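Our preliminary data section would be incomplete without showing what the modeling component actually yields. Below, a chain of 201 amino acids is followed by its predicted structure, encoded as C-alpha coordinates that our downstream tools consume directly.
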Amino acid sequence: MRDDFVYLASASPRRRALLEQIGVPFEVRVPEIDETLGPGEPPESYVKRLSEAKAEAVWADTAAAPRPVIAADTTVVLDRRVLGKPRDADEAIAMLESLSGRTHLVMTAVTVRGAGGASSLVNVSEVRFRPTTDEERRAYCETGEPFDKAGGYGIQGFGAVFVEHLSGSYSGVMGLPLCETALLLERAGVRGWWSRGRARA
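Predicted structure:
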Protein backbone atom coordinates (compact mmCIF):
# COMPACT_ATOMS: atom_id res chain seq x y z
CA MET A 1 0.00 0.00 0.00
CA ARG A 2 1.30 3.47 -0.90
CA ASP A 3 1.96 6.05 1.82
CA ASP A 4 -0.66 8.45 0.42
CA PHE A 5 -3.70 6.15 0.53
CA VAL A 6 -7.11 7.02 1.96
CA TYR A 7 -9.67 4.82 3.67
CA LEU A 8 -12.79 3.91 1.70
CA ALA A 9 -15.68 3.28 4.07
CA SER A 10 -17.53 0.93 1.75
CA ALA A 11 -17.59 -2.68 0.59
CA SER A 12 -19.13 -1.65 -2.75
CA PRO A 13 -17.18 -2.93 -5.76
CA ARG A 14 -18.62 -0.02 -7.75
CA ARG A 15 -17.13 2.57 -5.41
CA ARG A 16 -13.81 0.77 -5.48
CA ALA A 17 -13.81 0.83 -9.27
CA LEU A 18 -14.69 4.54 -9.36
CA LEU A 19 -11.85 5.50 -7.01
CA GLU A 20 -9.47 3.41 -9.08
CA GLN A 21 -10.75 5.22 -12.18
CA ILE A 22 -9.44 8.56 -10.88
CA GLY A 23 -6.22 7.12 -9.49
CA VAL A 24 -6.86 7.44 -5.76
CA PRO A 25 -5.11 4.69 -3.76
CA PHE A 26 -7.24 3.36 -0.92
CA GLU A 27 -7.75 0.72 1.72
CA VAL A 28 -11.26 -0.60 2.36
CA ARG A 29 -12.70 -0.35 5.86
CA VAL A 30 -16.35 -1.33 6.18
CA PRO A 31 -18.26 0.41 9.00
CA GLU A 32 -21.28 -0.99 10.78
CA ILE A 33 -24.01 1.61 11.25
CA ASP A 34 -27.76 1.64 11.61
CA GLU A 35 -29.23 2.58 8.21
CA THR A 36 -32.82 2.94 9.37
CA LEU A 37 -34.69 5.86 7.81
CA GLY A 38 -35.89 8.25 10.50
CA PRO A 39 -39.62 9.10 10.77
CA GLY A 40 -40.34 11.88 8.27
CA GLU A 41 -36.65 12.22 7.42
CA PRO A 42 -36.12 13.88 4.01
CA PRO A 43 -34.21 11.68 1.55
CA GLU A 44 -31.37 14.19 1.06
CA SER A 45 -30.88 14.49 4.83
CA TYR A 46 -30.99 10.70 5.11
CA VAL A 47 -28.19 9.99 2.64
CA LYS A 48 -26.06 12.80 4.06
CA ARG A 49 -26.51 11.51 7.62
CA LEU A 50 -25.55 7.96 6.66
CA SER A 51 -22.54 9.11 4.65
CA GLU A 52 -21.29 11.16 7.57
CA ALA A 53 -21.93 8.35 10.05
CA LYS A 54 -19.93 5.89 7.92
CA ALA A 55 -17.02 8.32 7.66
CA GLU A 56 -17.00 9.05 11.38
CA ALA A 57 -17.15 5.35 12.27
CA VAL A 58 -14.08 4.54 10.18
CA TRP A 59 -12.25 7.67 11.33
CA ALA A 60 -12.75 6.65 14.97
CA ASP A 61 -11.70 3.07 14.22
CA THR A 62 -8.47 4.14 12.50
CA ALA A 63 -7.41 6.84 14.95
CA ALA A 64 -4.08 5.08 15.55
CA ALA A 65 -3.29 5.37 11.84
CA PRO A 66 -5.29 8.40 10.68
CA ARG A 67 -5.93 8.94 6.99
CA PRO A 68 -8.70 10.82 5.21
CA VAL A 69 -11.84 8.71 5.00
CA ILE A 70 -14.20 8.66 2.00
CA ALA A 71 -17.76 7.49 2.61
CA ALA A 72 -20.90 7.61 0.52
CA ASP A 73 -24.53 6.62 0.61
CA THR A 74 -26.98 6.32 -2.27
CA THR A 75 -30.74 6.11 -2.40
CA VAL A 76 -33.39 6.10 -5.09
CA VAL A 77 -36.34 8.44 -4.54
CA LEU A 78 -39.72 8.15 -6.25
CA ASP A 79 -42.48 10.57 -5.24
CA ARG A 80 -40.41 11.49 -2.17
CA ARG A 81 -40.40 7.82 -1.15
CA VAL A 82 -37.03 6.23 -0.45
CA LEU A 83 -36.43 2.96 -2.29
CA GLY A 84 -33.68 1.08 -0.53
CA LYS A 85 -32.15 -2.30 -1.32
CA PRO A 86 -34.85 -4.91 -1.99
CA ARG A 87 -35.05 -7.73 0.52
CA ASP A 88 -36.24 -10.34 -1.96
CA ALA A 89 -37.36 -10.88 -5.56
CA ASP A 90 -40.95 -9.80 -4.89
CA GLU A 91 -39.82 -6.47 -3.47
CA ALA A 92 -37.31 -5.99 -6.30
CA ILE A 93 -40.00 -6.64 -8.92
CA ALA A 94 -42.36 -4.22 -7.17
CA MET A 95 -39.66 -1.52 -7.14
CA LEU A 96 -38.88 -2.03 -10.82
CA GLU A 97 -42.57 -1.89 -11.68
CA SER A 98 -42.94 1.40 -9.80
CA LEU A 99 -40.01 2.87 -11.75
CA SER A 100 -41.29 1.66 -15.14
CA GLY A 101 -41.90 4.51 -17.58
CA ARG A 102 -41.21 7.13 -14.91
CA THR A 103 -38.52 9.58 -13.80
CA HIS A 104 -36.95 9.15 -10.38
CA LEU A 105 -34.15 10.78 -8.42
CA VAL A 106 -30.88 9.18 -7.38
CA MET A 107 -29.29 10.92 -4.42
CA THR A 108 -25.72 10.17 -3.43
CA ALA A 109 -24.01 11.88 -0.52
CA VAL A 110 -20.23 11.74 -0.27
CA THR A 111 -18.28 12.67 2.85
CA VAL A 112 -14.56 13.10 3.34
CA ARG A 113 -13.40 13.08 6.96
CA GLY A 114 -9.94 14.43 7.63
CA ALA A 115 -8.00 15.94 10.50
CA GLY A 116 -9.85 19.22 10.05
CA GLY A 117 -13.28 17.63 10.29
CA ALA A 118 -15.84 16.28 7.84
CA SER A 119 -17.24 17.84 4.68
CA SER A 120 -20.13 16.50 2.64
CA LEU A 121 -21.79 17.13 -0.70
CA VAL A 122 -24.98 15.62 -2.11
CA ASN A 123 -25.34 14.85 -5.80
CA VAL A 124 -28.89 14.58 -7.19
CA SER A 125 -29.50 13.07 -10.62
CA GLU A 126 -32.68 12.38 -12.57
CA VAL A 127 -33.11 8.99 -14.24
CA ARG A 128 -35.99 8.01 -16.50
CA PHE A 129 -36.85 4.36 -17.12
CA ARG A 130 -38.50 3.25 -20.33
CA PRO A 131 -41.65 1.18 -19.82
CA THR A 132 -40.69 -2.36 -18.78
CA THR A 133 -42.64 -5.61 -18.89
CA ASP A 134 -43.23 -8.06 -16.09
CA GLU A 135 -41.21 -10.62 -18.03
CA GLU A 136 -38.26 -8.25 -18.27
CA ARG A 137 -38.42 -7.39 -14.59
CA ARG A 138 -38.47 -11.05 -13.58
CA ALA A 139 -35.63 -11.89 -15.96
CA TYR A 140 -33.60 -9.05 -14.48
CA CYS A 141 -34.15 -10.35 -10.96
CA GLU A 142 -32.89 -13.74 -12.08
CA THR A 143 -29.50 -12.14 -12.83
CA GLY A 144 -29.14 -11.41 -9.11
CA GLU A 145 -28.15 -7.82 -9.82
CA PRO A 146 -30.97 -5.94 -8.03
CA PHE A 147 -30.42 -7.23 -4.52
CA ASP A 148 -27.51 -5.09 -3.30
CA LYS A 149 -28.58 -1.87 -5.00
CA ALA A 150 -30.84 0.98 -3.98
CA GLY A 151 -33.97 0.97 -6.09
CA GLY A 152 -33.26 -2.56 -7.24
CA TYR A 153 -31.13 -1.78 -10.29
CA GLY A 154 -27.58 -0.98 -11.39
CA ILE A 155 -27.00 1.52 -14.19
CA GLN A 156 -23.51 0.10 -14.78
CA GLY A 157 -24.80 -3.44 -15.26
CA PHE A 158 -27.68 -5.28 -16.90
CA GLY A 159 -30.08 -2.64 -15.63
CA ALA A 160 -28.66 -0.10 -18.09
CA VAL A 161 -31.10 -1.34 -20.75
CA PHE A 162 -33.97 0.17 -18.76
CA VAL A 163 -32.46 3.68 -18.57
CA GLU A 164 -33.94 5.94 -21.22
CA HIS A 165 -32.49 9.23 -20.00
CA LEU A 166 -30.04 10.49 -17.38
CA SER A 167 -29.66 14.08 -16.26
CA GLY A 168 -26.85 14.45 -13.77
CA SER A 169 -23.85 12.37 -12.76
CA TYR A 170 -23.36 8.85 -14.07
CA SER A 171 -20.81 8.14 -11.35
CA GLY A 172 -23.23 9.56 -8.79
CA VAL A 173 -25.90 7.12 -9.91
CA MET A 174 -23.33 4.34 -9.64
CA GLY A 175 -22.66 5.35 -6.03
CA LEU A 176 -19.76 7.83 -5.88
CA PRO A 177 -20.00 11.20 -7.67
CA LEU A 178 -16.42 11.76 -8.77
CA CYS A 179 -16.57 15.52 -9.29
CA GLU A 180 -17.75 16.07 -5.70
CA THR A 181 -15.36 13.43 -4.38
CA ALA A 182 -12.35 15.16 -5.95
CA LEU A 183 -13.39 18.54 -4.54
CA LEU A 184 -13.77 17.11 -1.03
CA LEU A 185 -10.46 15.25 -1.21
CA GLU A 186 -8.69 18.46 -2.17
CA ARG A 187 -10.29 20.28 0.76
CA ALA A 188 -8.92 17.54 3.03
CA GLY A 189 -5.41 18.01 1.63
CA VAL A 190 -5.37 15.01 -0.71
CA ARG A 191 -3.78 16.20 -3.94
CA GLY A 192 -4.92 14.19 -6.93
CA TRP A 193 -3.75 14.57 -10.49
CA TRP A 194 -6.49 17.17 -11.05
CA SER A 195 -5.23 19.50 -8.29
CA ARG A 196 -1.59 19.12 -9.32
CA GLY A 197 -2.57 20.02 -12.88
CA ARG A 198 -4.43 23.12 -11.70
CA ALA A 199 -1.47 24.21 -9.58
CA ARG A 200 0.78 24.21 -12.66
CA ALA A 201 -1.67 26.20 -14.76
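The two ends are 30 Å apart (CA to CA). The beta strands are 6-8, 26-28, 69-78, 81-83, 103-114, 117-129, 163-167. Preliminary results of this kind motivate Aim 1 of the renewal.
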